[in-house]
Design goal:
The chain is mostly helical and 202 residues long. The chain is built from 8 helices and no strands. It is found in: Cell membrane.
C-alpha cells in the first residue's frame, strides 16, 4: 500500500504544467482564488483512477492517445496564452489569471497525457496487486485525488511565500511571461513525445 502513495507523490509533486500554474498562482497572491482550479485537478485524477481502476486497460484505445495528447497540448498552450496576457495589479488580488477555474483544472488534467501515464500503473497494476477492487477503488481514488489537489496547492503556497518578498508589478509581469514560456515548452515537449513520435512510429 505504501508503494502506491510513494509512486503517486513522486509523480504528482514533480514540476509539470499544473504545478507550474500553482506556483504562478501563489506568486500572484491567487492561492484562494484558484482553489477551484486545484479542485478540478483533483477531480480529474479521481475520474481517471476510478475509470481505469474499474475498467482497466480495456478503456484505453492506444490509437486515440495521440489525439488526446494533441488536445492536451493545445489546452496547455491556451492556458499559457492566458498567463502571458494576465493583467497584473497588486492592488487587485484577484486580477492576474483570475479566470483559471474548476473547469480549466478538470479539462487540463484530463487532457494531460502525463496524468494518464501517472494513473495507469496505479490503476491497472498496483491496485489489483494488493487486492483493491470494486468500492475500494473509489475510496483509494478519493485519497489519491486529495493528493493531486495538494500538489498544485502546495506549489501555490510556496509561491505565495516567495511573492511576499516582491512588490514591483513589473517583476510579476516578467514572471508571467517566463511561466507562459515554460508552459509552451511543456506543451511542445509533450506534443513531441506523445503526438509526433507515435505518428512517426506508425
Amino acid at each position: 500500500m505504501s508503494e502506491i502513495f510513494a509512486y503517486a507523490i513522486g509523480v504528482m509533486y514533480t514540476p509539470g504544467p499544473i504545478n507550474l500554474l500553482g506556483l504562478h498562482s501563489g506568486l500572484n497572491k491567487q492561492t484562494r482564488v484558484h482553489l477551484g482550479f486545484f479542485a478540478g485537478v483533483g477531480m480529474a485524477m479521481f475520474i481517471l483512477f476510478v475509470i481505469l481502476g474499474i475498467v482497466g486497460l480495456k478503456f484505453i484505445n492506444p490509437q486515440l492517445l495521440p489525439f488526446i495528447s494533441l488536445a492536451g497540448c493545445l489546452y496547455i498552450l491556451y492556458i499559457a496564452w492566458k498567463v502571458a496576457h494576465a493583467n497584473v495589479k497588486l492592488s487587485d488580488k484577484q486580477s492576474a489569471a483570475k479566470s483559471l477555474s474548476f473547469r480549466d483544472g478538470l479539462f487540463m488534467q484530463l487532457l494531460n497525457p502525463k496524468a494518464l501515464i501517472a494513473t495507469l500503473p496505479v490503476s491497472t497494476i498496483q491496485f489489483p496487486s494488493v487486492g483493491i477492487t470494486g468500492s475500494a477503488v473509489v475510496i483509494w481514488s478519493i485519497l489519491l485525488a486529495v493528493l493531486a489537489f495538494g500538489a498544485p496547492t502546495s506549489y501555490s503556497i510556496v509561491g505565495s511565500m516567495m511573492g511576499k518578498q516582491i512588490s514591483d508589478p513589473k517583476y510579476f509581469k516578467a514572471f508571467n511571461l517566463v511561466m507562459a514560456a515554460l508552459l509552451v515548452y511543456v506543451s511542445l515537449s509533450i506534443g513531441y513525445d506523445h503526438v509526433i513520435v507515435p505518428w512517426i512510429v506508425k
